[in-house]
Amino acid sequence: MTKKKYYNKLKIINDPVYGFINIPSDLHYDIIQHPYFQRLRRIKQLGLSYYVYPGAVHTRFDHVLGAMHLMNAAINELRKKGHDITEEEKSGALTAILLHDIGHGPYSHTLEGLLIKNVSHEDMSLLLMEKMNEEFDGKISPGIEIFRDLYEKRFLHSLVSSQLDTDRLDYLKRDSFYSGVTEGGIGTDRIIKMLNVVNDDLVIEEKGIYSAEQFIVARRIMYWQVYLHKTVIAAEEMLKGAIRRAKEETKKNGVYATNALAYFFTHEFDGIKSVRENDLLPYTVNAYTKLDDSDIIISLKEWMTHEDKILSELSRRLINRELFHVEISNKPFDENKISDLKKKTAKKYKINEDEASYFVFSDRIKNKAYSLGNDSRISVLLKNGQTEDIANASDLSNIIALSHTVEKYYLCYPKDVS
Description:
Layout lengths: L11 E4 L3 E4 L3 H8 L1 H4 L21 H21 L6 H13 L21 H15 L5 H7 L7 H6 L5 H14 L8 H6 L1 E4 L2 E5 L3 H19 L2 H23 L6 H8 L5 H6 L3 H8 L4 H11 L5 H12 L4 E5 L5 H15 L11 E7 L11 E3 L5 E3 H4 L4 H4 L4 E8 L5
């Protein structure tokens, strides 16, 4: 197939969050045009959050372009402050942030580890980067080094992945914008202007500490109000249940699924290593890079009339947004209550109690806005030239409080068996 030639690759994209975004080079234009990258247009950034926030239908494609824009701004700012960042290093950092989410599957985090056991989206991202690098004659290699934190200037990796990286800066601002949860809004311009590098560590200058504090608080709010919203949890767990049931039915009686999805129903893997050992890597990559949200929706619509009651009921409810009721508690739910709900559900839907676990289930959720004292801590550059963890430098006592993991428990079940 003859590759289409583009003579004007330095295009401008109109982004609703930042305004005009420039594509910085021919290489990055070609990366964006690659089919693996274009697939991100068909994967929602916030999974099933649009069941709660109708505007939250933005995609991973939107997000990585925004993160690239922030990376470009951050590197330009660091250069102004006298830090030596070559054009190749800048290009590598932009490549790394552009491709950091290339491995996401349908509905982003929702089905992670379910289609391919023990494989994260980061694992798939690296796999697809390496595959693309073959096509790009090694031009993506600097980006892969930075992504894997193997490059000598480690602050470049921190701009891609840390507790104050361009990934988080974009997704908080973007997710807040599209969901309408204004409390999650952050001042990305101010934070980027305050970035600096000390001893190869990415830091924020002391006069930017309030913006960084707001960033941490906003992250906590977005987790409870959007990412871990109880209705979103119900929808995502129902989707997981439908996929698990469809995989089981594939072995018994067979189910309809798109070709890309069917591949993962008929092949069992445990980690990337097992894919390689079975000599199925090319086929797995081919199927995965054709898989997106539409495969799931099309399959769910077909499963609504499947003879299996559990699969059809879960699919019908998801398509029509008849979601399970959710209770949230600060302590585990009583096992007798869960057992009683399963018995009622089994009776109502004429299924056994083991099968009722698809309709009645409980688990826990965690929220930790800031990790204290680890390698990727947010360091504040004080006026005396010393650096300090933001939790110690801040005059807000709640920053330390936000470093503690908060656990809550949820219980989901059909409303008609309460």
